[in-house]
Amino acid sequence: MDNNKLNQTSSAAKAGANTATGAGANNTGNTNTKLTAKDWLIILAVIGGIWAFFAINHKSYEEYDLKGLTVAEACEKARSAGWKVDSIRHADYWNNHEKTDCYNTNQTVTDYEYYSNGKKVKIEYGTKKTKEEKEAEEAEKKAKEEADKEAACTTQGKVYRSNGECKSAEEWAAQDKKEMEEAEARAKAAAEAEKQQSSTSSSSSNSSSSSSSSSSSSSSSRLDSSKSYKYATIEEGEKCPSNVQLCYIIGNSTGYPNRYGTMRGKIINNTSRDYSYMQVTADIYNSSGVKIGDCWGNTSGLKAGATWQFEAYCDTWTTGGRLENIDIKGL
Questions:
Q1: 124 class by beta-carbon count within 10 Å (0-12 exposed, 13-18 middle, 19+ buried)
Q2: Pick from 311, 223, 325, 216: which is nearest to 274 by CA?
Q3: 150 pLDDT exceeds 60?
Q4: Which of 272, 331, 279, 266 is nearest to 304 (CA)?
Q5: What is the pLDDT of residues 242-260, one digit of tens each?
Q6: Using the 8-state DSSP alphabet, how is residue 271 labeled?
Q7: Is the whole model's pTM more than 0.85, yes or no?
């Protein structure tokens, strides 16, 4: 091969190399592509949407005074400022009042509350009852329920008591007798135990006179189930005299002629002692002065200064009759 051919081959090789190098350089430069106008439009649209979202959700709505307006007027006014009406309810809704809606043109708004985080408003209408009114309403409701239960029980020829039980007169008589016998047995056992304790204490005392005084004081400050106690009969609201242990308030006693009755009243513990047992009994006399039955009731305890509101069972009843020989015993 001559020199001319060698030179031509070498020149061709160099030219190929230069061409390859230039192509590589061009490819490297194409990786830094510039954003087009279309790209910028997309980006600006996204940013604008985000800004609009926050602007709308953080918009400050005017909080109108809605009191005194009808429910329909309040809804319209709140909505005109951009608020959504979340709920409309009676001021005492939780007292079984019904909800209403924005078409209500009869009720007047008494209260409302705006919630800026949700752009909502809650509206209330009607008058909110006081605590005393609610308690009176609840008491009236319970009294009606008790009256309905008693009427249903009476229809069955049975006796209803305030503890919610409905039984025949015979069943109540047997239950009361059993409870009274058990209570009397407990009272006697407690009295015997106290007597033995008092006797032991007295024998170990150095002074017989102080022992006698202590024993007398102990027995006089406690009721004894083996004997009756005097009491003062007072009117409802009247103060119990300080010189008596017990006070008796006459209640409204009722019954069904020739069937059964209920003796009602209150007994006040006018001492500083707690009593573990208390009972009340009475004789039932007809209009001719003849005894025709008995009433009796008991309770397991009566604290110092407390009042026992009792309902004593009567084994019969008569129109125009009366209760006599009311007797109170206890421990």
A1: buried
A2: 223
A3: yes
A4: 272
A5: 888 888 888 888 887 777 8
A6: S
A7: no
